Amino acid sequence: MSKEMTGAEMVVQALKDQGVDTIFGYPGGAVLPIYDVLFHQEKVRHILVRHEQGAAHAAEGYARSSGKVGVLLVTSGPGATNTITGLTDALMDSIPLVCITGQVPTHLIGSDAFQECDTVGITRHCTKHNYLVKNIADLPRILHEAFYVASTGRPGPVVIDIPKDIQFARGVYTPPAGIAHKTYHPKLAADLDAIRAAVDMMAHAKRPIFYTGGGVINSGPAASTLLRELVGLTGFPITSTLMGLGSYPASGPNWLGMLGMHGTFEANNAMHDCDLMIAVGARFDDRITGRLDAFSPGSKKIHIDIDRSSINKNVKVDLPIVGDCGHVLEALVRVWRAESMQANKQPLEDWWAQINAWRSKKSLAYRASSETIKPQYAVQRLYALTKDHDAYITTEVGQHQMWAAQHYHFDAPNRWMTSGGLGTMGYGLPAAIGAQLAHPNSLVIDIAGEASILMNIQEMSTAIQYRLPVKIFILNNEYMGMVRQWQELLHGGRYSHSYSEALPDFVKLAEAFGAKGIRCRDPELLDAAIQEMIDYDGPVIFDCLVDKVENCFPMIPSGKAHNDMLLADLSDDAGLEIGSVIDEKGKMLV
Amino acid sequence: MNAPLSPPSPYSAALSSSKLEWHTLSVLVDNEPGVLARVVGLFSGRGYNIESLTVAEVAHAEHLSRITIATSGAPETIDQIHHQLERLVPVHQVTDLTTSARSLERELAMVKVRGRGENRADALQLADAFRARIIDATTESFIFELSGRPSKIDEFVDLMRPIGLVEVSRTGVAAISRGPEPI
Fold this sequence. Notes:
The structure holds 2 protein chains of 2 kinds. Chain A is of the alpha/beta class. Chain A folds into 3 domains: 3-173, Thiamin diphosphate (ThDP)-binding fold, Pyr/PP domains (Rossmann fold, 3-Layer(aba) Sandwich); 192-359, TPP-binding domain (Rossmann fold, 3-Layer(aba) Sandwich); 375-545, Rossmann fold (3-Layer(aba) Sandwich), CATH 3.40.50.970. Helix content of chain A is 37%, strand content 16%. In chain A, helix 17 (399-407) links the parallel strand 15 and strand 16. In chain A, helix 3 runs parallel beside helix 5 (84-92) and helix 16 (375-386) crosses helix 17 (399-407). Chain A is globular. The two termini of chain B are 37 Å apart. In chain B, helix 5 packs antiparallel against helix 6. In chain B, strand 2 and strand 3 form a beta hairpin. Chain B is of the alpha+beta class. Chain B has 2 domains: 10-100, 2-Layer Sandwich (Alpha-Beta Plaits); 104-176, ACT-like. Chain A, domain 2 (Alpha-Beta Plaits, 2-Layer Sandwich). Chain A binds chain B through residues 120-121, 124-125, 128-129, 132, 134, 149, 182-184, 286, 292-293, 295, 297-299, 307-309, 311-316, and chain B through 1-5, 7-8, 30, 33-34, 37-38, 41, 45, 76, 79-80, 83-84, 86-87, 89-92.
């Protein structure tokens, strides 16, 4: 129903009409009218973060674990600029966010007013789209359109910058109606000819592989179900990017583990040697492909992606299919069944025999220790003790993130939240807060490093304020571990500024915030300590003191191909001769 | 087997020996604030070249503007530019006029030339040959106006240089497809 109200009231009404029950924000001068409206209602719950970057990551965690749009509300100037990392993170990982920023009144724009910044100018490069509202009459349309743009097609963050005078202005609010956007029309269904061609290529493949990514998860749970069905129908092996973990269950028989720079030996070699690659909602990122001119040289490639510009961007493919993963997978399953297709049985058996030979390398193995806690062991025990819980896992960025991806196994989508594209240290704690708010009765764990966690540690206060029992499981090796590993590999072991000579006492830090602190350094006591963390009804910081110099393997060194992996040296001799594995060209890469 | 892969970034493509092509893209956009910044920002952010750019409103009631961009790059890069432009929310349509249709390209230039005596006569003669109009004259200078394909304007400017070229102002390329159909 159309109704006259103020701009601030429209914002809150639109949130309600869009089904938003939780927003993350931080008040300030330029959003006070909206905060005043929030004060008078109870439908939209506002979570007060401690830094606007935290609001953005919390909204991401909320969105990724629930499939809904994440919403944040911040003030002008520093409020807006503090969200930039989170917005960029959401853009890189295709996470639907709507970010409402206050702006100085229209008549002051351009005058370098207090807490003014060119929000739409600054965020143009890190959003899917953005708006500066100059007229109250446009506000209702823009609010609804923002949710539509953020959540459809390839999802992403959308900013709405609302000057303070527009928040006070009165106008007519219109509720959301069927959006008929002038220019934005994401293509969901694929051409049937392309589907038939894909099915035909799949039926004739001798060494096929599914390579799936975050697009399957973004498409919704139905896409994961269809993916499982298609994998079951064809019997093909499947690997996934960091972003796609959980869409096919890690316990499934066809699962090869994650691929890419720290992927498994079997996944990467299968990618290299396959004759048909079916990429589903994955974008051939450099962490996946390794050396491009040696990437899967003998394969035909099918690429399913909702974003036309992802196709042929990094790797030239033979059959592009532009469409939503769920729609395309449904069509593939339907056509495969309707035409009673059969996989190429004998070659496929031979292919699996080869894959099993690679598997027997056990590339995720590491040298066990009874003296110190190996970080891999810590994640394995965390998995063993939490897998029967209704668990959601977030991470920060670095070695611990890779160990979590390798050793924590996901059987369902939307359970794993990590900063994949941007690689944002400080992502995990606010993302865990967002996930916990979406799933109040679930076990939410941020697998963290001691360096990353300090980047948004202030959000502990948010967890305490809203009684969110998030668990922060720090693999503490006192180093920025991935930086240290690269310095060992590339820079002759000169550990330039990657050691934290002053760290807080994380147990006392937890207590200072009002949370529980647990420390463990003994492998024998680890299980009991993890259990204590799980059983505690409230937030916990778990300071897990691990081997300080463990490296993350397997690894495709920079500039190398998939079949040129470094594996962990499990013998008792000195460590790997890895000082020279990366050539001069590889050193240039990141 | 795959064809040899080109480097993914246009920055490295520009350094490599892969062949560069020139294309003219016609981009129909909603004439809203910031739309030009979106298009230009896309080019700078992803390392694409802009050889020339023109923009003006073409349908007032519908708030439509046409941006015509002459760009250069490896064929894969041109393809990427096309699809990246299509991804921008306020973009209605992107047409590669170089590949999709027979098209006409025109540019307008104003060329200031200074000289006396023989140089003056030479300038007038050449201007006549190029069908350039004189739009301003003093006893020691002319301003010529001419339109045509960018290469024609390049040629004219080159000829004027030894005679006494002072400066040039060019509009950039406007383009349209031939025949009765719209772009």
